[in-house]
Write a structure and sequence with these properties.
three-stranded mixed beta sheet; globular
């Protein structure tokens, strides 16, 4: 059943109960659909639980509340990444589909990033309409618990410790897709999970799960911080103890009674306590707990449970400009400060490494060296090492580098973290408030967006990103090391080595 002519409100029967959506521009859209029980009261810091369901038709025409988070006013890069309403009862998802028929369309599940402390499936940035319409896909995005509500490690009644409840949320959403997406015209056997930054790390972590069946077939990892170490259980409990002190709670039982606005407010104190100069730090980290996360996420896609998942992976040219380029404390950095930071990575070879980065970028300032070395350390180098390892195992992997620079802020950002997002979604109208897109030549911008967007659609549909309007994109192998460079001129480049 198509919706180009059907103006009635579509109703779909899910396993939890019937839901009524809305028709928007020829697509059936269902918003704020519960995929797990509200994680409130005794379920705070518990793994996601099945929803008890409903008997009457549930209205699914408006987005559910976003996971509680701080709102950053005047964000100089994105203009913001999350807005009210917020509520602990946030475990909902949204679906866009060309028709609730039996077409068994490929499915895209998008997981937003935001350092595990911000973001929402309700954000217009991540609306699934362009992918659904342009690719004849069923698109799902979701909310999951963030910040202290999603990443604190807390003791349970039986004396054990619960880690990574955010991941149990995402797993519950993927199981909802397996159980229900056919009713929305989707194929549960052809699911791609995609994400950016923390959403990409989530995707890799999810590849370690599946139980008696695979939850998804393909993965797209955009700007995945593969070098970010997961916390050990002991480190995570130490961070919980520090957080308790900031909140002023004597133990987790008392913390369970604290209203969520106070929990979110205390995140700023933990961020201050964990910040290191020249390092891209986060107040909360996923935990390598041997259960929900049994291994480093990247290993899931090498020889772990997700080894047979098709992977498309890449980074932006100046990822770390997102964090360092505009802050005065870094813009005025001295060579001595950056050398001190480089020693954390290169030890006694810091001066030699600094000189190499400087030589590769004539006229560069210390801030440029800092951005380059931290981009390499956290994103580029581990991404290429991953591609090398996949290729050595004969596993399919396509690699890309997004280097199209933004002219915003006199070009100081280059191609920063997140710049690829509006190109991937091809939805610049949803990003009109984002300062980092200012000044772009719209003709070049829109042409590149069509190229990138179509490549993602092709990969989601077939497992191969190639399409007629772009140069041939070969799989990464150890002979050619083919990497697609998205820029003013899109071209395949070779011999990008991991070191």
């Amino acid at each position: 059943m198509g919706f180009a002519q059907d103006r009635t409100a579509p109703v779909v029967n899910t396993r939890s109960g019937p839901i009524r959506g809305v028709v928007e521009d020829g697509l059936a859209v269902f918003k704020g659909v519960p995929y797990a029980a509200p994680p409130v009261g005794p379920l705070r810091w518990r793994p996601a639980q099945p929803h008890q369901g409903w008997s009457l038709v549930l209205d699914a025409t408006t987005h559910g509340p976003s996971s509680p988070q701080a709102v950053r006013e005047g964000d100089p890069i994105l203009g913001g990444h999350g807005s009210p309403p917020f509520d602990e009862d946030c475990l909902t998802l949204n679906v866009w589909t060309p028709g609730t028929d039996d077409a068994r369309r490929p499915v895209l599940v998008w997981i937003h990033g935001g350092a595990f402390i911000s973001g929402s499936g309700a954000m217009p940035h991540y609306s699934g309409e362009t992918f659904a319409r342009d690719g004849d896909l069923v698109v799902v995005n979701l909310n999951y618990r963030l910040g202290p509500l999603g990443l604190l490690s807390c003791a349970t009644d039986d004396g054990s410790v619960q880690h990574n409840v955010w991941l149990t949320d995402q797993l519950a959403a993927l199981r909802w897709v397996q159980d229900n997406i056919a009713a929305f015209g989707g194929d549960p056997d052809n699911v791609t999970v995609a994400g950016q930054s923390a959403g990409a790390l989530s995707t890799a972590a999810l590849a370690g799960h599946g139980g008696d069946g695979r939850l998804f077939r393909r993965a797209i990892l955009q700007s995945v911080p593969l070098a970010m170490p997961l916390a050990t259980p002991a480190e995570s409990l130490a961070r919980t103890a520090a957080y308790l002190e900031i909140v002023g709670a004597k133990d987790v039982d008392e913390l369970r009674t604290v209203p969520w606005p106070r929990l979110v407010e205390a995140t700023a104190g933990l961020l201050t306590a964990t910040t290191e100069w020249g390092h891209w730090t986060a107040p909360f980290l996923p935990v390598l707990d041997g259960g929900t996360a049994a291994r480093q996420p990247v290993e899931n896609l090498l020889d772990g449970p997700g080894a047979d998942i098709d992977v498309l992976i890449g980074w932006t040219g100046e990822e770390s400009a997102f964090t360092f380029a505009l802050g005065e404390v870094y813009a005025s950095a001295t060579r001595k400060q950056v050398l001190r930071r480089a020693r954390d990575s290169f030890g006694d070879g810091a001066a030699e490494a600094y000189a190499a980065y400087e030589a590769a970028r004539p006229g560069s300032q210390p801030i440029d060296v800092l951005i380059a070395l931290t981009t390499d350390e956290l994103f580029r180098k581990p991404t290429l090492a991953f591609a090398e390892a996949r290729a050595a195992l004969g596993r399919p992997v396509w690699a890309y580098e997004f280097t199209f620079p933004t002219p915003a802020y006199d070009g100081r950002l280059g191609a920063p973290h997140c710049l690829d997002l509006p190109f991937v979604f091809d939805n610049f109208d949803k990003w009109s408030h984002a300062p980092f897109l200012a000044g772009m030549d719209t003709r070049i911008r829109d042409g590149l967006a069509r190229t990138v967007h179509r490549a993602w659609i092709s990969f989601i549909r077939t497992g191969d990103p190639n399409h007629p309007a772009m140069p041939h994109w070969g799989r990464y192998d150890r002979r050619s090391r083919t990497t697609m460079r998205f820029d003013t001129v899109t071209t395949a480049v070779s011999h990008l080595t991991p070191h």
